[in-house]
Amino acid sequence: MRRKLVAGNWKMHGSLKKNAALLNSVRALSPGLDCDIAVCVPYPYLAQAQALLDGSKIALGAQNLSEHEAGAFTGEVSAVMLGEFACRYVLVGHSERRSIYGESDALVAEKFVAAVNHGLVPILCVGEKLDEREGGCTEQVVARQMSAVIERAGVAAFAKAVVAYEPVWAIGTGMTASPAQAQDVHCAIRAQVAALDSGLADGLRILYGGSVKPQNARELFSQSDIDGGLIGGAALVADDFLAICRAAI
Ligand code: PGA
Fold this sequence. Notes:
It is built from eleven helices and eight strands. It has a single domain, classed as Aldolase class I (TIM Barrel). It is globular. By secondary structure, it is an alpha/beta fold. The chain has helices at 16-29, 46-53, 79-84, 95-100, 105-117, 130-134, 138-153, 179-194, 198-203, 214-221, 238-247, and strands spanning 5-9, 36-40, 59-62, 87-92, 121-126, 162-165, 205-209, 228-231. The structure holds 2-phosphoglycolic acid. The site of 2-phosphoglycolic acid has 13 residues, from strand 8. 2-phosphoglycolic acid (PGA) binds at residues 9, 166, 171-172, 209-212, 230-234.
């Protein structure tokens, strides 16, 4: 039985004041929730979040990392630096990184490797765009995104990783994939990994992301291959985020 994980992706939102209120509320109400919870915050807030979450079971994550360890890479942040703030998770290949910042499958694979090599758990985001879904190539696109990482990192690296299926057309749009649509893709992702290592595939957590709300979370999370969620907008509202966490139990 895979333990569910609910990870908040704050994106470029927050302020010292708002973060404190949000994290204190989530922290106060999360004990007793029998699922893993994480928050992926913007870099400048890592120290604040680390301090506010100290001693709680809520894990800290970042939203991106450099593929390099150190050097002349202005503006970049390495896995080693994230580790210094007790980051456990890091998003890799979020669709906004792929589409707005031009991150290729190959670069995403390098970032995945950098995370694993430094003891961070990458949350590898994959997903198709609307035209790709309408063109009937959803599974092909997701398989290609997965293959690029499997080939570079080796399937064994997925023992220390999480995958998040996020259909691009569902992110921030209010258009959620139906539970059946999401389940089909999650099942295909697991089958792709199972073809190489079935035991590993059984334990691999595959999250769904894209307009998850308290109203739709329970049905999504009840699908057999959906092991939790990657939550954007709803992770900024403590009551909503906690309701989604409760739906994962
Ligand atoms: P959303 O974002 O929940 O606001 O759709 C999800 C994500 O981008 O990770």
